[in-house]
Amino acid sequence: MMLSRSRIAVAVAAGICALIAVTAPSLLRSTRIGLEFRGGSEILYVAASVPGSAEPSRTDLLSTARELARRANASGVAEPDIRVESPAQIRVLLAGDATKDQAQQLLQGPALPVQLEVKWTNTVGGVLGAADFSATMTAGVVALGIVFALLGIVYRAQAAFAVVGLLAYLWAMLAAFNALDATLSIAAIVAFVLGIGIAADANILLFERLREERRQAGSGREALWRSLRAAGRTVLDASLANLIVAMVLFIAGIGPIRGFALTTTIGVALSLLCNLGLVGALLLLSGVPERQVETVAPPRPLPFLRLTPTLFALFGLIALVGAWSIATRPFNYDIDFKAGTALDISLAGTPITQAEAIDTIAGSGIGAATVAIGGAQHDQVAARFDDALDQGKITRIVEQFRTAYGDKVAYQENTADPAVAQDLARQAVIAICLALAALAALVSIRFGWRYAAATLACVLISSFLVIAVFSLFSLEIDVTFIAAILTVMGYAVNNSVVVFDRIRENLQAAAPRAQDELPQDQLRAIVDLSLTQVLRRSLLTVATVIAGALSLYFLGAEPLQMFSLAIFCGLVFAAIATIFIAVPVWLGLTELIRPTPRAVSLPAE
């Protein structure tokens, strides 16, 4: 009977894989690719009223957008994308070889219902965009392969169902993008890649829980049901943390990373469906062999709390060094947070030195504020200008490089108005504060104020240390850095929820009605036991998400390197801080306010 059910489960899984294999190519072809991969220009206009008229209405903005689209079509631009954004903003995206001068020509002609002023521009060459797309997709495939291999090594046969769940998750994400007519931007692909690791966490939690439940009395099917209930509760709480971060990012309206927020929001819902629901159903269908019950030895509690003073001191030292750096050294802000123009030039494999790049730029008669060289082959030039450059000046600089290094030179330009830069900084601060408040409220409602205070300490120290690293090494901070910090915050809460959920469960088992009355030694023993029980899960989850971050850093598009580095640092800091900051803070608060303890028997391991 077990063999028959296993065959049915395998057949269902094979059918799902076959469906994915048949339909995925069509979904990929029909998915809208972002401007940064196709090449073209993007301009953000701020609308103002025509002299003598009232403030622009929504109707006025929509009429202006339709007229701009008509003019773009008439000028031969393929598939112009013109959106009305709040407050009183219109974003124009013109794919292909369009320059921002051509985009500006859309304003020429009969008067529009509103006056438009350029506040932010971005131009990407088609060759550079295609290269970025290829590199980012390669990073995604490598990350997926690493996650599959890791799951296979650890969970063996069970990992086959996890692979099916992850493939179904990616397929469902593509289907959702097509259904919503959403754009697959570079930020969205980043969310895809990082989402692979986060989605795998649901499988890891389920498998780890099943591994523990098999030691308990009862049939294999009963152990699986208990695992699904316990893991489902934890995954739901952790997913809420990621959903809060994504929604805050989206509502904050930070344009360049709204695609990241949208993808993460969709991914949270689909991950629950595919990586918990589908995988759980396949496991129930296949069944759990009875002979495997009771075969795994229980873990021996590790003395985590003994190491707390040492790790606490280490975190404190790093924080002090970071605070000194932040207080004495200015941040290396990208153009997103200050006015001017950022010009990134790719020399298609031809190496260049900083002195050569400075001389080439100077040959155009324009001086750059800073010039840096990057890329694995030292063929990327990142020039920053304090003043906003018009298209004519940008063309002169690019032509200087093409004269010296050939026609394969490609470029990406980003120009920001001071008002937009200040507004972006304000939105970033608001987004972080809103996320902190929402995450603290979530943990407080689900677990209590002591757990919330401890989780907040973990979130703050993890985020601060990432900021400190970027300050200490003068790493560039752009708008994607905000997404990285919020992602780290979400992960820190995610990890804390998993740890505190296990501590609470073990406390309830030991003293259902008098948890605050446990003697100190018994309370600490339960904490060490709980941390030991979730250690494997924490390490595996960190490994899967880090696989995505490192793949993006080493193989992804060059603009994603700082984002990936921030994610990598944040994940490491958050994983350690959960155990050695959050848990000790909670323990300290618990011991501070508890009544006179009494002896209570410990839960069985």
Instruction: List unreliable stretches of 5+ residues.
Output: 291-295
Q: How far is the N terminus from the C terminus?
A: 33 Å
Strand content: 5-15%
The total beta strand count reads 12
CATH architecture of the largest domain: Up-down Bundle
Mean pLDDT: 82
How helical, in percent, are the residues? 55-70%
Total of DSSP H or I helical runs spanning 4+ residues: 17
Q: Kindly report the name of the CATH homologous superfamily of the largest domain.
A: Multidrug efflux transporter AcrB transmembrane domain
Order of helices and strands: HEHEHEEHEHHEHHHHEEHEEHEHHEHHH
Q: How is the largest sheet built, in terms of strand order? A: 3-4-2-5-11-8-10-9
Radius of gyration: 27 Å
Classify the fold: give the CATH topology of the largest domain: Multidrug efflux transporter AcrB transmembrane fold
Helix/strand class: alpha+beta
The total tally of domains equals 4
